[in-house]
Amino acid sequence: MLADFPGLIPARLLFGIDWHIITRVDCFTEFKERYVRVLSNGGIFTGGEMEDFFGGNALHFLGLLPPGTRSMAGWTGNRKRLRAFYKRENIREPKWFQATDKPGSAG
Asked: Is 35 exposed, middle or buried (0-12, 13-18, 19+ CB in 10 A)?
């Protein structure tokens, strides 16, 4: 698929797992590290594509990119609405939200 659709799969593929199921597997804590090893050693994704795969693409898809970041589909304002919700409900922003608060920090 990567050869047939260059650039499309790395830009659109979303990573996700069901942690309640994966925790039953031996060495589940090394799951992401093993994924990274396979994807990087196999030359499947570049570093930036891997960062997008592990989170950036989901932020694009859900419209949760930081303000000022150019989204492939355009900025939807979801991040702004979510930030307002956290503030209004007195909820501490999750670490992933804070970690991706600047343009270019999608992973």
From this structure: middle
